[in-house]
Amino acid sequence: MKCPICNKGELKKGKIKETMFGVYLGEFPAVVCTKCRESFTDSATTKKIEAAAKEKGVWGLSAKTKITQTGNSLAVRIPKKIADYLKLKNSEEVTIYPENNKLVVEAEPVKA
Ligand SMILES: [Zn+2]
After folding, report:
1. What is the pTM of this model?
2. For residue 16, how far is its CA from the centre of ligand 1 (angstroms)?
3. Domain for residue 92, yes or no?
4. What pLDDT is stored for residue 102 in this prediction?
5. Res. 86: pLDDT tops 90
6. Domain residues for 31?
7. pLDDT tens digits, residue range 20-53?
8. What's the domain count of the chain?
9. How far is ligand 1, taken at its centre, from the CA of residue 60, in Å?
10. How far is the CA of 51 from the centre of ligand 1 (A)?
11. d(C-alpha 32, C-alpha 29), whole Å
């Protein structure tokens, strides 16, 4: 079967290592393109990946938020579910820096 993304590679059965927000979810069966490495999973596997993400507490952690002005600075509101996940508390000191078009807010590593 030809790859629908690059139209050059072949789709071969294999395994993919799935991560979400840097958290390893496990290995899952998929068909992987021999050229562009794009992978495709069936709906049953997609559900298993979703279940693994929920189990690890990383499902649905991405969220839209608005920048607000406070004095001369700008503030980013961190939604409760992300704050809870990272165990961030009010007045806690974090390090922020740009990374390409991202804003990285570095907290202490999450305790297992
Ligand atoms: Zn491809």
Report:
1. 0.75
2. 15
3. yes
4. 94
5. no
6. 11-55
7. 999 999 999 999 999 999 999 999 999 999 999 9
8. 2
9. 28
10. 27
11. 9
Q: Does a structural domain hold residue 61? A: no
Residue 49 Cα to ligand 1 middle (Å): 22
Residue 2 is assigned to a structural domain of this protein: no
Q: Is 90 exceeded by the pLDDT of residue 111?
A: no
Both structure tokens of 108: 């202490």
46 and 75 in one domain? no
User: Which CATH number does the domain housing residue 93 bear?
Assistant: 2.10.260
When pLDDT is cut at 50, 70 and 90, the band that residue 112 belongs to is: low
Q: Does 71 share its domain with 51?
A: no
